Records
---
Amino acid sequence: MAGRLVIVGAGQAGFALAAKLRALKDERPITILGSETSLPYQRPPLSKKYLLGEMTFDRLLFRPESWFADNNVEIRLSAWVEEIDRTAKTVRLQDGERVEYETLALATGATPRRLPEAIGGELAGVFTVRDKDDCDRLAEAMTPGRRLLVIGGGYIGLEAAAVARKLGLEVTVIEMADRILKRVAAKETADIMRAVHESHGVTIREETGLHRLIGEGGRVTAAELSDGSNLPVDLVVVGIGVTPNDRAAAEAGLAVANGIVVDAFCRTSDPSIFAMGDCAVFPWQGEEIRLESVQNAVDQAEAAAAVMAGGETAYDPKPWFWSDQYDVKLQIAGFNRGYDETLLRPGQREGASSVWYFREGRLIAVDAINDAKAYVTGKKMLESGINPDKAALADPASDLKTLLG
Ligand code: FAD
């Protein structure tokens, strides 16, 4: 039997790795070290139904506590790994204890970027949205009539804005770029989502940055914006992206470049150390990429498990993602990086549409807005390398199925 696998990070990827190894009948001893106080849980509902109060926390857990004992997976919570000693093959916890490993897996996720203290980032009433505790605090503060400023028009910020409106807060979203969703989606998708938010009463101010937050008695009361205006606020959600948790890896001398660098087999520059999920940068289609999604965390962890169990299949992601805002379900298949052409296809139902991304004439991604058929068909096309006829695609009367060939 192989020696102990220590998994750092009890999140989506860390749990998926342990579960997959057991599914593969790999019986090596496994210890998961997680810094949070809860058993592994899914994060996506945090900024959706959980924040809204429509889902209880127990429904977010991947497995009950008994699963870990039944599967001989030791799980240690509130266990923060400070340091990796690659020579001794140990990790050091915050209390000085050392845990030995034969194989180490880094599944440490990412940390939301915060506002600097100098511009009010430490004031009470300023929130980030990453874990259960963040969302519990935010949910408590989201009472009807309060004024919320969301900084950053990405998925997390927009989902928080949608929840806040549903709860009866006044919501303003500011976005420094010339439009929301600039980093992740095409203009067509952004235009649709902007219109959805505005129809629900959210004020969206693009090309508007934050100059500083103003506080009274240590609590945020206003925001000074880059256009010189002053906005009274009671709460602020900061949704300006994340940074991968790669500090311990970097200090241990592993290759790190905005994430822990791994090869296609999820191995770091040290053959006994793997990395996966939000913290890992991996090669794909000639580029080094890092994905922040459930699909990537699970599939990369499962690929690593297969390699640990003796397989040699490279991780070849089939990216997909989703976001729920009000009654809009945005589903994304593929990875739109480097797109040079987009096409908007109106859906057959009211409020449904899809945006198709091409790079050098090749279909690379699709955003489906309340359009499950476009999502499913687009995903199939991407998986089978089908390039749909663009004129037919743009025609809402054409049947998507026939474009599958
Ligand atoms: P995580 O799940 O973040 O787990 C990492 C764990 O490691 C954390 O518990 C962290 O505390 C712990 N850790 C870090 N450093 C240490 C250390 N030194 N020692 C011990 N423990 C450590 N994706 C989608 O596909 N669709 C969505 O709709 C979606 N919505 C999201 C909504 C929210 C609010 C958030 C925060 C994320 C969302 N995501 C979504 C992204 C998705 O949840 C992440 O990509 C996924 O959780 C990544 O898994 P991971 O295991 O890499 O990291």
---
Amino acid sequence: MKEHVAPEQMHFLEEIVAADLAAGKYESILTRFPPEPNGYLHIGHSKSICLNFDLAAKFGGKTNLRYDDTNPSTEETEYVESILADIRWLGFEPANIFYASNYFDQLYEYAKQLIAAGKAYVDFSSPEAVASMKGTPTEAGKPSPYRDTTVEENLAQFERMKNGEYPDGHCTLRAKIDMAAPNMHLRDPYLYRIKHAHHHRTGDKWCIYPMYDWAHGQSDSIEQITHSICTLEFIPHRDLYNWCIEQLGIFPSKQYEFARLNLTYTVMSKRKLLQLVKENYVSGWDDPRMPTISGLRRRGFTADSIRDFARRIGVAKRENLIELSLLEFCVREDLNKKALRRFAVLNPIKVVLTNFPEGQTEWLETENNPEDPEGGKRPLAFTRHLWIEQDDFMENPPPKYFRLSPGGMVRLKSAFIIKCEDLVKNDAGEVVEIHCSYVPESRSGSDTSGLKVQGVIHWLAEGHTETAEVRMYDRLFQVEDPAAEEDFKLAINPNSLEIIHNALIEPALHTAQAGAHFQFTRLGYFCADPDSTDPKKVFNRTVTLKDSWAKGQKK
Ligand code: ATP
Ligand code: MG
């Protein structure tokens, strides 16, 4: 398998795995994705998911899902379920689904092993006292007065901690490593704390909970994870990760770090996302403006486009900020191939074809998807009374205006050329009807008119439409790096959602199922929302057709 992987196409983690396999270090590789179930997964997590699953798959290995549920107060079943659903939607299936809480008994035994070896002690110092004795990176810390307690006493005290004899925060278990270590994480880090709290899986069995540094590496080792991949902020934890595993003499999982995904105009911390939800800035975790996987899905992003995005951004070792427009580019690329084309008129204005007989319907046809040879065609009714977009008409156009204007001509897509002859205005002087003539010989596909017109606009025939609610989404934040603001909520874009209540859509959209993708011709990509009812469909604008990313690259 590994011979088939061309070295020049590999990123640094693939190179590490290839070298490990070539050296015979492992028979097969096992990675894991370890989310804390305290929120919904976001686009940053999808980066980590794709990385872990793709890396293992590329070398014939597997990937576990492990819920990092060591913190008893935050986990909720809703999050646990949404996480698995999102991973599967992205197209990945975990080899095993585990919980760090499965290992609480084992972790407790490991801790006793460490105490017995004289490598951990129960500390009754207050958190303030511990902090004040930590020292600084250039100055050694001071030993805790409890550092030299005997093994027997420590074992007894640890058991009392576990038995619930002490209140929250009364004491902790600390590793006994080196109070002068240049890496502050090695200055006798906490391994266990007391927290009398109910846990979603272990109930009230435990009142001591392992710290991240004690739970994570040991869980990796128990599962025999070969390559434990995390984000850069865990680099200083790596020595401790290795120290714990070495002391216990257990399977030597190894930690590797990559740069987390940061996206412009986006906040990615779950704490901030939770705030947006709790304080009703958005309608929920799956609000189509949220960078959550469920929000992106509802907005109309496809799993293929998110995986493509993860591949394109690659795996970096240095922090960077990726353009949101790249993600939009990826979904456009994907939907251009997949989405059915449909006509919708969001803000209609009436056109009357004065030379087309009243009451007559001519049936035309148009392609469902010019990118898909199998896509077929659909019928379009053409009548004397039509609707076009208000935006496609200007009474006093600037030079080089190619849409409709007095005396001007435009082609109605897949139909005929029309010429604007007259306007009907209301008392306020606003145009309410555009009277046009149509050119019968200009029928698309069999045009013998010899006329050349620059503009092509979309349209619908009166009486052959349904109404829909169309939710026009825009980016949720109006600054590039909202997380850098003093209050990120002040950077929210007040126009991130505009609702069009009575858009007109073609009848072929009547059967659109929630989640179905469409290109509304000339307007953008849209996705049918689960809020749709039988009389009234709801569509979310996924993205406009305009591509700012590829253009920016060419400059
Ligand atoms: P948050 O800061 O949003 O709470 P987290 O890192 O605490 O994120 P976890 O649930 O612990 O969230 O993350 C699970 C996995 O996803 C971890 O391995 C973490 O490194 C990875 N991850 C989280 N955010 C990103 C990101 N923005 N880019 C890449 N990977 C990420
Ligand atoms: Mg975390």
